[in-house]
Amino acid sequence: MKRKLSFILALALLLITSPTFAQGRKAQIELFAGGAIPLAPDFFKDYYKIGFSGHGQYVLFPSPRLGISIGAAIEGFTFDGDKYLEDIGLSGSGVTVEGSASIVEFGIGLRPYLTPPESGTQFFLFGMGTFNLLHDEATASGGGTSDSFKEDFNKFGVAAGAGIELPAGESLNVILQGLTRFIFTEDETTSFVGITAGVVF
User: Fold this and answer.
1) Which of 3, 73, 79, 160 can bridge 105 by disulfide, Cβ–Cβ 3.0-4.6 Å?
2) pTM for this structure?
3) Rounded-to-integer distance, Cα 59 and Cα 69, Å
4) pLDDT (tens digit, 9 = 90+) per residue, 7-31?
């Protein structure tokens, strides 16, 4: 695991310092945020609310119509304890359940553009490999007692999606992006859709 992460970081450094990226389209910094909708597994989809998604990335251009992104993201989800207790028949019993899940992600991706760089509005596709730090915790209380659960684990994943970049000034663009993320967790792949908007410098 550590070797794979070291390889990803070394590749990112090589891309940033490579002279081939000094030509053509200018590199850009992107900051964007939005919502994340749980898809799978069923427990995640059924009992976690729509979460927050925040991203930052640096995009290099080996050619005018191909970007390589290096970035980080964080997603946070809140457990719907009321719905869970209702489904298992404990609603109104005096038991409460609270919980949350978070994902910190590091990734390297490819972004082929469907429109030329001189176009005012630009459409692109997006795919990336990710390394994810996951944290999950929950607390159940009732009858004067409580029990807590915490888990941390690291997993690799992939993501794919599409977006649009719109001009908003001489040195600022607006970006809208939809991305489906897949994290290769133990029993069943964890997935969610992120819909975000932000700015490009």
Assistant:
1) 73
2) 0.83
3) 4
4) 555 555 444 444 444 446 889 999 9
